[in-house]
Structure formats: structure tokens, C-alpha cells
Amino acid sequence: MAQIVFSGAGCRKDVSTFLQRSGAGKCLIVCNYVAEDQKLDDFLAKAGISYIYFTDFGSNPLYENVCHGISVYLSNKCD
User: Fold this and answer.
1) DSSP-based three-state secondary structure for 5
2) CA 66, CA 62: separation in Å to the nearest integer?
3) Cα atoms found within 13 Å of the Cα of residue 26, Cβ hemisphere only
4) Helices of type H across 4-40
5) Where would you tag: which of 6, 33, 39, 49 has the fewest CB atoms within 10 A of its CB?
6) For residue 28, what are the contacts with CB-CB under 8 A and spacing of at least 6?
7) Smallest Cα–Cα separation from 75: which of 46, 55, 54?
8) Kindly report the CA angle at 8 between 41 and 68, in degrees rounded to 5?
9) pLDDT higher at 68 or 51
10) Which of the listed ranges 8-12, 50-54, 67-71 does the model predict with the highest average pLDDT?
11) CA distances from 26 to 8, 51, 53 (A)
């Protein structure tokens, strides 16, 4: 799947609508700590979508950060 970036006012609702339409079961949401503070929780819960946040990376992620993200994705059985 191609990367999709949601931004701007109301984008949280757009994310949950997109995930619901795509048939997502469990999502790995990769975001920085700022985005995590603006939780999608309510929108995703209303859409019936399970999720986990991954925030363990910085600008220009290192190989180790990517490997950790993959590990989190697989161990949590994300789609």
C-alpha cells in the first residue's frame, strides 16, 4: 500500500473513515509524540478499529528504529 498522509482540520475523522472502508482489522499507527498527543482513539473506537501506536523513532529513522517498528507490527498481528 502506498503511503498516505492525512493533515489539516478534521483529518482524524478522515483516517478512521479510510481505515474502515479499507477493511483494516488492526493498524500500526506510526506517528511522532505530537501526533500521539492528538489521539485518534475516539475516532478509531467508534469505527471499530483496533490499533497500536509506534512512536519509537526520530527524524531520519535509523535501521534499528525500522527493525523495531517491524517487530511491533508483527508481534501485534497488525494488518
Assistant:
1) coil
2) 7
3) 10
4) 11-22, 33-37
5) 33
6) 51, 52, 54, 69, 72, 73, 76, 78
7) 54
8) 50
9) 68
10) 67-71
11) 24, 5, 11
Q: How many residues does the chain have?
A: 79
Rounded Cα gap, residues 79 and 66, in angstroms: 17
CA-atom Rg of the chain in angstroms: 13
For 24, the 3-state DSSP assignment is coil
Rounded distance between C-alpha atoms, residue 60 and residue 33, angstroms: 15
The answer, yes or no, to whether residue 21 has pLDDT greater than 60, is: yes
pTM for the model: 0.72
Longest dimension (CA), the chain: 35
Eight-state DSSP code of residue 57: -
**Long-range CB pairs of 52-55, under 8 A, 24+ apart, other chains included:** 52/26, 52/27, 52/28, 52/76, 52/78, 53/29, 54/28, 54/29, 54/30, 55/30, 55/31
